[in-house]
Specification:
- The chain is an alpha+beta fold.
- The protein has a seven-stranded mixed beta sheet, covered by helices on one side. A two-stranded antiparallel ribbon has the order 1-2.
- The N and C termini lie far apart (about 35 Å).
């Protein structure tokens, strides 16, 4: 309700070139649609091989969606931990999708080779990112259970231990 009231009272005021009503509507969407137990929006992007990739392709798996950027130091620090967790739990149905809006598939391919990522990196449009609501900071993680609904949202870096505590009950 707070965002709805803010949009109604101050919607025409601009912050960083965007009206408050636009910021509020994105936040309202995220609160309504990305709540725990809700199905997340579809991801429709291109992986490092140039092939289409959709979140729905991973139905029946526990999936960590990680919004990140190649310039984000905390995002880079997570990568070795994510590689270890994926190696350990992939056979049990765990997958990670690294979601970028600011790198091309070619840049992602070079990045994946340099950092030896063992999980898909996908480039999506800014509109696809907005469908998940405001990503106020990077990294932002969304954990999706086997049943296809959001189980957890996390803002900031995740340690290996934190991630394992979150995924073990879902596997």
């Amino acid at each position: 309700r707070l965002f709805e009231e803010l949009a109604a009272k101050h919607g025409s005021v601009k912050v960083s070139g965007q009206r408050i009503s636009e910021h509020a509507s994105t936040s309202i969407f995220a609160l309504k649609h990305l709540r725990i137990g809700r199905k997340p929006p579809e991801i429709d992007g291109v992986d490092t091989a140039g092939k289409p990739l959709k979140l729905s392709d991973y139905q029946g798996k526990v999936v960590l969606l990680i919004f990140w950027a190649s310039w984000c130091a905390p995002c880079l620090a997570e990568i070795p931990e994510f590689i270890k967790v994926r190696e350990q739990y992939h056979a049990q149905g765990f997958e990670i999708l690294g979601i970028s809006t600011d790198d091309t598939p070619e840049q992602l391919r070079d990045f994946a080779a340099k950092y030896k990522t063992n999980y898909p990196l996908v480039q999506v449009t800014a509109e696809a990112e907005e469908a998940f609501g405001p990503v106020f900071g990077l990294p932002t993680s969304i954990l999706v259970g086997r049943h296809g609904s959001v189980c957890k949202r996390h803002f900031g870096p995740l340690s290996k231990e934190q991630l394992e505590r979150q995924i073990k009950p879902l596997l």
